[in-house]
């Protein structure tokens, strides 16, 4: 991405960052509304140089957490910091954190370009930067149109252009792919990846699991306000250490690995699913006993499956299967 005028050489500078610069930090954050705790002692970090997916069922507390990071809600206890400071403590927050919370934030009667220019002017940012961001967001052909006529996807693009205007080190995007067409979804993916590659910290909430699996390096899962997982994407989809082995001597191999402490599920005459031993140990056991392996692979699960497994006890709004034709 093009650095902001007057900020030459700030990126790529992940290595040069002091340890909290650009970092998004939440420490023991708690918030209740009307006696209901919606964010419950939440602690996590989003490091510069990474995209962190912020996942959770409806009502899990993702937006409330993001709003506390942006000083829009006051925590009951705990701290929400960007670059080591509360949002309100930054002299120029637009240069610290880029935010996409509400795609409909632009004044409906103002053109996209004017909306950006007004924000730019109040923050000492040049019109050239505005034009660059219009180009980056793919809004050139509609820059003079009223924002009120924009589709949801165009509104999202305008919101992203605003978020990037100040060349911030941290980015917080709430459901950025909402309303975008496939080309827009893929644009957000490559944009967030390149923002992270430039050394920025990116926190991005989404319900689109397949997309998150392609975009995020880390995953934080919230359920009923509490952290259910904070792991690398690779760990989340690693299938909890399960290894699938195929051999013509499945019963013998099952017996051997069980004796080595593994749990074994026989899937069919030749296929075993083994938990508790690495693929390497299983291969070694098979070789020592002259058992030919036809296939050996660690099991990967989809992010969606991993998400359902993590959150099944924390879903607040679950539809019933009753239809109007069912007897009452
Ligand atoms: N201003 C408010 N007053 C009262 N309750 C609120 C307020 N804001 C949020 N809540 C409640 O807090 C809970 C968490 O909401 P939040 O919007 O943070 O969840 P979310 O994880 O972002 O959900 P979604 O995926 O549906 O956007 C919900 O039960 C919501 O109704």
UniProtKB/TrEMBL annotation:
PROSITE patterns: ABC_TRANSPORTER_2 (PS50893). It holds the Pfam family ABC_tran. GO terms for molecular function: ATP binding. Keywords: ATP-binding, Nucleotide-binding, Transport. Coiled coil: none annotated. Residues 24-249 form the ABC transporter domain. PANTHER family: ABC TRANSPORTER, ATP-BINDING PROTEIN. Belongs to the ABC transporter superfamily. This is ABC-2 type transport system ATP-binding protein.
């Amino acid at each position: 991405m093009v650095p902001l005028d007057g900020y030459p050489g700030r990126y790529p500078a992940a290595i040069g960052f002091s340890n909290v610069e650009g970092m998004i930090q939440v420490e023991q954050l708690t918030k209740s509304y009307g006696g209901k705790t919606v964010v419950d002692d939440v602690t996590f970090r989003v490091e510069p140089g990474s995209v962190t997916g912020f996942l959770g069922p409806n009502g899990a507390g993702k937006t409330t957490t993001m709003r506390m990071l942006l000083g829009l809600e006051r925590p009951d206890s705990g701290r929400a910091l960007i670059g080591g400071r509360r949002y309100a403590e930054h002299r120029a927050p637009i240069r610290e954190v880029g935010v996409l919370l509400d795609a409909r934030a632009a004044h409906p009667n103002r053109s996209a370009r004017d909306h950006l220019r007004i924000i730019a002017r109040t923050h000492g940012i040049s019109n050239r930067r505005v034009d660059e961001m219009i180009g980056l967001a793919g809004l050139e052909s509609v820059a003079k149109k009223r924002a009120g006529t924009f589709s949801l996807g165009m509104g999202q693009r305008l919101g992203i252009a605003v978020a990037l205007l100040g060349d911030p080190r941290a980015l917080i995007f709430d459901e950025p792919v909402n309303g975008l067409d496939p080309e827009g979804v893929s644009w957000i993916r490559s944009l967030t990846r390149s923002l992270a590659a430039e050394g920025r910290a990116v926190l991005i909430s989404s319900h689109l699991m397949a997309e998150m699996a392609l975009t995020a390096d880390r995953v934080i899962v919230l359920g009923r306000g509490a952290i259910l997982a904070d792991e690398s994407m690779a760990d989340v989809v690693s299938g909890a250490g399960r290894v699938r082995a195929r051999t013509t001597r499945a019963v013998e191999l099952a017996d051997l690995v069980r004796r080595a402490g593994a749990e074994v599920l026989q899937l069919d005459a030749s296929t075993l699913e083994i938990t508790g031993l690495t693929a390497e140990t299983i291969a070694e056991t098979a070789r020592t006993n002259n058992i030919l392996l036809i296939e050996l692979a660690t099991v990967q699960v989809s992010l969606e499956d991993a998400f359902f497994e993590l959150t099944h006890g924390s879903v607040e709004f679950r539809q019933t299967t009753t239809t109007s034709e069912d007897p009452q």
